[in-house]
Amino acid sequence: MKLTFIGADHEVTGSCHLLEACDLRVLIDCGMEQGVNKYENAELPVSYSDVDYVLVTHAHIDHVGMLPYIYARGFRGQVMATRATCDLCEIMLKDCAHIQESEAEWKNRKAKRAGRQEQPPLYVMADAEGVLDHFVPCDYGDTIHLKPGFDIRFTDVGHLLGSASIEVWMTEGDCSKKIVFSGDIGNKNKPLIRSPQYIHQADYVVMESTYGNRFHKQSGDHVEEFARVIKETLDKGGNVVIPAFAVGRTQEVLNYIRIIKERNLVKGHENFPVYLDSPMAVEATAVFKENMLDCYNDETKALVKKGINPISFPGLHLSITSEDSIAINFDQEPKVIISAAGMCDAGRIRHHLKHNLWRPECTILFAGYQAVGTLGRSITEGREEVKLFGESIEVKARIEKIEGISGHADQNGLLQWIGSFMEHPSQVFVVHGDDEVCDEFAKTVKELYGIEAMAPFSGTSYDLREGKFLAVTKGVLIQRDVPETTKKAAGVFGRLVAAGERLRKVIMRNEGGANKDLARFADQINSLCDKWDR
Question: What is the pTM of this model?
Answer without folding.
Answer: 0.85
